[in-house]
User: Fold this.
Amino acid sequence: MGFFINKGDKKSISLLECGSFGLEKENLRIDKNGNLAHTKHPFGDDFSRDRDFCENQVEMITGVNDSVDSVWNEIARLDSDTKETLLKLKTGEEYIWPFSNPPYVKGEDDIPIAEYEGELAVKTEYRRHLAATYGKKKMLFSGIHYNFSFSDELLKSVYKSEEYRNIEFDEFKNGIYLDLSVKVLEKSWMIVYLLAASPLFDGSFFDESRMGETVISKYASPRCSEIGYWNNFIPILDFESIDSYVGSIQDYVNKGMLKEASELYYPVRLKPRGINSPDNLLHKGVDHIELRMLDLNPLSEVGIDKNDLNFIHYLIIYLSLKPELTLDEEQQRTAIQNMRSASMLNPADIMITSTDGASNNVTEEIEKILNDMNSTLSEYIQKEKVDSVISYQMDKIKKENCRYADIIIKKYGDDFVKDGLKHIIQYKD
Assistant:
């Protein structure tokens, strides 16, 4: 269900931009020569700087923030503190690699699985399962997860309208996020296209004998492409209710297609407060939505541009204001295929298939959606703010070589790793 906000409902409109924001940012640790670091995770049990798949992959995790500015400032502080700590290691200086694609890779033995001990040793066993199932190299792809929830005050204000008087608040809240998940899934291709920033590889990713060779791939975002980190099948989920949603994921676990629910690699997840588990989601309901398709942006020292964070926030609001959307099995497969297609580098090669089966070129489709976002949101949010958010994204499709991937090829395309190291040293100095 989407929001039904009467234009005269000033309270709900005033709360529309309110919400909670969180970011999780993955980066690889490297040495001064562009090799993956082989030291142990240097941040101990600091929850805000955890590991991801491998021991040398730092995951910076913000707390819950009440604005885009606040969450961006926190990830900036975490990023800066992490870099400063790595420069002062007794084992020698290390750096944060700012790209989603890894630097030099000396085979799978160069990728140490994160080592947890004691009660947490099960996490290492799970990572060994992932390595055996998908291979280690794909695990090196790094990115950003964007977590968002509407304020409960807004949800309760909207809930009071006559549209929802026949359902309980918890059911209404879960319904809002289930509907939003479907809509974000259907539009995930647009986020991929506009934020893709990973067109370059070092040749060693494909063959160790090609180390030092810069490869300009056909993908602007390999991690979201057909060669990215996906399950070995396209999951079809049931968004009718929270019970059916959890049940559809659990079915894949029961059939042995997933080891556990967290192995579902999907553009968007619904998550409960506290421990992320199917039982917790069933009993506590949805706390927030997680968008998982954002590349690291090396053009921003923090790894993400604040303009893009604002855009995703406004896209979420826009989608929530649109009529309810349902996707059948074929439409869900199409949504995933659209996302993979949007990861391509050449826009002329990208056709997007809409829910009615029609196909259109990616830039034409984005322009149409951005224009509708502008007109829709301007009825609820200050027009100058909306114009600013939309125009930043519009430039990426209207101006030549303004997409991040194009800029990165021009800046780092001669020697990906060495030019990337120069970028890092520049920051250090």
Observations:
- Residues 169-195 form the longest helix (27 residues).
- The mean pLDDT is 95.
- The radius of gyration is 21 Å.
